[in-house]
Amino acid sequence: MRFFSLLFLVGFLCISTSADAKRKPRNKFVEIETTMGLIKVELYNDVPQHAENFLKLAEEGFYDSILFHRVIPEFMIQGGDPKSKQALQGEMLGSGDIGYKIPAEFKDAYYHKRGALAAARDNNPEKASSGCQFYIVQGKIFSDTDLDGMEKASGRKFMPEARNDYKTIGGTPHLDGAYTVFGQVVEGLEVVEKITHVGCNSSNRPIEDVRILKATVTRK
Q1: Where does the pLDDT of residue 215 fall: very low under 50, low under 70, confident under 90, or very high at 90 and above?
Q2: Does some domain include residue 17?
Q3: What pTM value is reported for the model?
Q4: Is residue 14 included in any domain, yes or no?
Q5: Whose C-alpha in 48, 99, 123, 215 is 20 to 30 A from the C-alpha of 58?
Q6: What is the pLDDT of residues 153-190, one digit of tens each?
Q7: Where are the alpha helices (DSSP H) in the chain?
Q8: How far, in Å, are 20, 26, 109 from residue 16 at the CA level?
Q9: How far apart are CA 197 and CA 37, in angstroms?
Q10: CA end-to-end span of the chain
Q11: What share of the chain in percent tops pLDDT 90?
């Protein structure tokens, strides 16, 4: 009887685990190989439209040879402009797009802490994202006073976890609720940091090109 109960319990756990796996597909990862090192990002599958679009473009080779065309220390590095593949040295970039937008997918659990992967956008009132341009947050550390002021100005409260992250590892909290965060750097934050220290022109474009050599989808 005990043996039967044990077998039943093991079988039940296996079925439950299998069902959970079907309900909650694992997040996927993309390795972004750049001229300054490797950055690996995890994509949140519960921000589906943004994650699936980024995966699709990576698999198609869209990001291969694209530049990080906008770099601002203590803020972020931005890429994804298709015009940057063949851009002349010093050419103004940032207006290139893929011809469609992605509806905003804001989630309180995902915010602009250091290493966040988020979608760029123009000033459309729906806050819909560019279909291809993205940025990775470097940011800086903020104090409680700083964060209190942002809350007062925006009318939005920071969750305790977000507040703690902004005070310890840093980020760009003023972007929360305005741009969709759909992933996070899991390896290569030092590469992001290194890119933010390159010399740039008055348009924040690196003087020496920082290029994505290849973006590769991985399981982990």
Answers
A1: very high
A2: no
A3: 0.89
A4: no
A5: 123
A6: 999 999 999 999 999 999 999 999 999 999 999 999 99
A7: 2-23, 48-60, 144-154, 160-168, 189-196
A8: 6, 16, 26
A9: 14
A10: 42
A11: 87
